[in-house]
Amino acid sequence: MKPKKNRDVSEVAKATCPRCGAEGILEIFNVNNRQYLRVIHYYYDTKGKRRKKRCYIGPLEDYEHVNRLHELGVTNLKDFNPAKIVMNTVENFIKLVYRNTANSYTSYKDIHEIAEKAKTLLTTLEICRKQIEKLISSLET
């Protein structure tokens, strides 16, 4: 039997797994002085025994850039859908607004800045809506 490698593990937070979409615990683990990410999923097998499934995500230092794509709803390049990305971006912005404005530590300046960004976003979406309506009406005639 092989001896286990010395691995240092630390749990980070609850997360949605970008590989399988299930909820789990994001974990950073070290192997040979490099840090990696994985999501741990706990479940019960048919006999009622608690089991653990690990979804490997990738190296910590390289993954930060990719992680931002998951917030937009993109898990790989085949998944590219502009409408889905816009919807996820707007939903994430709404969550950010709610978190920041509900937080009593948020300054007036920060709330004002969020309001200005929201106004810009709404204006852009309205322009987009009008252009799509024009396109649809031109296709119908």
Notes on the structure:
Helix content is 47%, strand content 28%. With 141 residues, the chain is an alpha+beta fold. It folds into two domains: 8-66, no CATH class; 81-140, no CATH class. It has a four-stranded antiparallel sheet with strand order 1-2-3-4. The longest helix is centred in the C-terminal third of the chain and has 33 residues, at 108-140. The radius of gyration is 21 Å and the shape is extended.
Topology record:
Blueprint: E1 8-16, E2 23-31, E3 34-44, E4 50-59, H1 60-71, H2 82-102, H3 108-140
Helix pairs in contact: 2-3
Task: Sum up the structure in keywords.
2 domains, alpha+beta, 141 residues, extended
The proportion of strand residues reads 25-35%
**Strands, count:** 4
In this structure, how is the largest beta sheet organized?
Answer: 4 strands, antiparallel
**Biggest sheet, strands in spatial order?**
1-2-3-4
Structural class per helix/strand content? alpha+beta
What's the domain count?
Answer: 2
Shape: extended
| Rg (CA only) | 21 Å
Portion of residues within helices? 40-55%
How many helices does DSSP assign?
A: 3
Distance between the termini: 74 Å
What are the secondary-structure elements, in order, as H or E?
EEEEHHH
Which stretches are poorly predicted, pLDDT < 50 over at least 5 residues?
none
What is the typical, i.e. mean, pLDDT? 78
